[in-house]
Structure formats: structure tokens, C-alpha cells
């Protein structure tokens, strides 16, 4: 069970989603190909942008901030922790979601179906 502060952070993030997250959620909330997705889903000490429980797959939308400061190292630790707990991660650049959201959704659905 995630710590209560992680759950609170996830709730706050749901109210302040970035434009690429909003665009992607508009597609994923319709359960494409019968896959259910959750947004700003807390797992352990982390919050994933999106999560597909049936595929045990997290989806991260990477904006420019992911390349700054300590964020790359944090992403590595986070990815390792999630992998240890059986959760695969798909990282998608925010610019791809903004440019061609349908292509991004198709790739995500295809990966989650495997």
C-alpha cells in the first residue's frame, strides 16, 4: 500500500495534469481495445502518469524537466524500483504526444496488449 502522502500527491497531480497528459488521458480513459488505464496512479513511494493494471505497465510522459538536475538519476532509481516490483515502464516524449497523440496511443495499446 502506498504511503498516504503519495496518495495525496497523486490526487493533487490529477488536478494539475500537463497538456500532454490531458491529451493522452482523453484517449486512454475510453479503455482502448478493452484495456483499462489509471491516471496519476500511486505505487509504493511513486506516482506514475498512467498505469495499465492488466499489463502491469506504467506510462511516463517525459517533458524537458526530466533531463534537468537530479531528475535523470531519480528516474533511474524509480525505474529500478518499479522493475523489481514487476512493473514495466514506457517512456514517451511529451512532444510526441502533442504532435501525434493517436500514434502514441496506438503504440501504448500495442505494447500493453503483448
Automatic annotation (TrEMBL):
SUPFAM superfamilies the UniProt entry points to: Restriction endonuclease-like
A family per Pfam: DUF559
Annotated DUF559 domain residues: 8-112
InterPro entries linked to this entry: DUF559, Endonuclease_DUF559_bact, Restrct_endonuc-II-like
Family annotation (PANTHER family): BLL0828 PROTEIN
Protein known as: DUF559 domain-containing protein
